[in-house]
């Protein structure tokens, strides 16, 4: 009676729990969610915030820049306001006073934008709930950073994965160029990928993705997004090269002439005598220094950043290195021209930047180091071939020679599909070569990455299905049953649990239930292919057979307990036999635990996700016991109890087991066979059940049955099952004709 009341209450609570998720704060206007602390973190030099603009909204951030000239549009606006208020044009003195006051206080320049992932992309976390992360984007298209304002993720909490870890991951994307493809896995832009947030990798993936996607959207909306084709110059990736490797790779190209050599090249008809014919006339190298793989290698990280910071958006940087008699810098760089197709641009000292010393490994002996800015306005295309033309005007030789440059393919990046189609990247395939990796979406890539694991899991599930379908054959031989079961549980623990990290948890069930009832969508769950497959299989097995298929065969922590118990028997560890009356009452405990968790979720108490720690899965399975001492001690105690009592945690404490037992009540088939003699007078199966799921009456409680099939081994054993022995003897007594 009490049990039934508890179970029905539980159902009600689960339903209400699914509906509960009132998150009203992020629906407040954007400006009211941005406090001075957020502004200071993302834009330390901010002085003023503008009004929210556009749909989705973003807030312009203004900072002081004394060097900037007064923008005529600001003055024009001021003039209109003046006209409206004063009903006359401002005088020249008043205009000058306004300009002076603007200059005095420093002109407020737009330095970036603030916006939220919530309004911009409506991105969702693993829980299926939206999150509110305020993102800062600089006007040069680089990420200023992000601040989490509201986030409700199951595995992000002080006692699970602290939010600071997630923030640390997001911070590594600071400076990422949103105009470029941001590699979320390797964390281009300084990011280090998601592995730093072990235990909450899906939340890490989804939130980072939300930040980058929102930033891209706002960049387009503000009109600051680069208007690029499918390909662009990869300035961010870095390949570490020494000088000879850089030259062989094509990052820089060079030529070398002796006095005699340059004469032959430029004035072959001259037969004049030249002095020092073997002396080096020039050794000269050039290349595009804007990509980190070239510039950072040549100047070192610190100075490369400095040089690049002097470029305006869309500018390119050229490095020219030389030695010898010929000085290409002479006449304020007028000796050098850039040639591309039918265009030719002459450099002047305006394009020259102050170069720093070479810091490349195996440094060449090139003393003339120069950096030239290629202004965006020139219309130079860094992806196309180009040449540098050097004019020579010496006493003994006149003319010009060229260095021809072709960008290494690796420095061309862009849409992965287009890159492969153009032959700029080898085509990568996934899923045993059946699918092109570049065409996959986020969650599809996860499935592709785990293709072998998915195949192994399918093999395991097919085997398990065969065991259950042909359980009579499996249980007809005690040894075969023992070997198969022990082998399967070992794979469940070691591969499924410790290696593939596919431990289903109450967190998954809560998230799925909320998504189902609140219509939150399911895409986020697809990021965990193994958990997804196990969940679907478990759902079907629950409907058909009840809780036992998952708990008895597919739960890594359940397998760990069973293996530990078997070990206990092997080493003759004292066994603790719980009397059936007590066992029956203790079953209720796990439902109470589940109810407490459910109630804390419903009332929105922060304790809910700490209470989930009652599951030792994270400690014993996904974190390999590498957690703080209290968690390790707790998991250790449960495992120690498991030495003397089979599956103590499963039977009496597991909230996931409680949900499955509750839902499994409605299963269709009872596959464990029974005889009229089961329970009266025979108790053999009852004694063989390791979890006391068989009542003294002989009835099996399928909510507590783990489908281990131990009882079925007895059931088919005609040397142990009394009715079978009796039947066999009766047959033997029948006289044979
Ligand atoms: S009761 Fe819990 S720990 Fe035990 S097998 Fe089932 S889910 Fe796993
Ligand atoms: S022995 Fe039988 S009743 Fe007991 S858990 Fe195993 S299959 Fe279920």
What about the largest sheet?
5 strands, antiparallel
Mean pLDDT: 86
Structural class by helix and strand composition: alpha+beta
Q: What is the CA-based Rg, rounded?
A: 36 Å
**Coarse morphology:** elongated
Helical stretch count? 30
Distinct ligand kinds: iron/sulfur cluster
Number of beta strands: 18
Q: Alpha-carbon distance between the termini?
A: 58 Å
User: Order of strands across the biggest sheet?
Assistant: 1-2-3-4-5
Unreliable stretches (pLDDT < 50, length at least 5) are 15-24, 186-195
Strand content: 5-15%
| Percentage of residues assigned to helices | 40-55%
Please characterize this protein's 3D structure.
It contains 30 helices and 18 strands. A 5-stranded antiparallel beta sheet has the order 1-2-3-4-5, sandwiched between helices. Helix 17 crosses helix 21 (556-570). The chain starts with a helix and ends with a helix. Residues 15-24 and 186-195 have low confidence and may be disordered.
Quick synopsis:
With 737 residues, the chain is an alpha+beta fold. It is elongated and about 130 Å long. Mean pLDDT is 86; it is low at 15-24 and 186-195.
